Amino acid sequence: MSDHMMPPTPAWDDPALLEASDEPVAYAGDHLESGTQVADKESVADAIRTVYDPEIPVNIYELGLIYELEIAEDGSVDIKMTLTSPGCPVAGILPQQVADAAASVPGVGRVQVILTWDPPWTMDAMSDEAKVALGLY
Questions:
Q1: Which residues are 27's β-sheet partners?
Q2: CA 135 to CA 116: how far, in whole Å?
């Protein structure tokens, strides 16, 4: 595979996708040119905060759906995320929206998103801001 080709995003109708996996489910971005300043974690987190589950009026970062956000020295970004449930009706779009949002940040290279179900998401993962927005405080 050349440096500019991304592996295809898996088909979301594949039942194996709903099993725990270390395989990426969404990709975006491209390698950074040498000498490009790499984005910081907060800038990438802010971009991810623009992604919302359409059924919940809180962004997915504050919902606690992002478990890991790693930025390498070359600007590549690895994100491990979950969904509120394996049957989430937006499972087919949210990981790609997260990848696209992260890739939109200057100084971010290739982005890959891994979907995990371990540990399962609970409301305890939400930030205080999310709990207030949802009237849980």
A1: 112
A2: 27
| Tokens standing for residue 5 | 């080709």
Contacts of 125 (CB under 8 A, 6+ apart): 63, 64, 65
Strands lying side by side in the sheet with 77-81: 24-28, 111-115, 77-81, 66-71
Cα–Cα distance measured from residue 116 to residue 130, given in angstroms and rounded to the nearest whole number: 21
Taking the C-alpha atoms of residue 15 and residue 103, their distance in angstroms, rounded to an integer, is 27
Percent of the chain residues topping a pLDDT of 70? 84
Show me where the domains of the chain are located: 20-133
Q: How many CB atoms lie within 10 A of CB 4?
A: 8
> 20-133: what CATH class?
alpha beta
**DSSP-assigned letter for residue 52:** B
Q: What is the pTM of this model?
A: 0.83
pLDDT digits (tens, 9 = 90+) for 84-95: 988 888 888 999
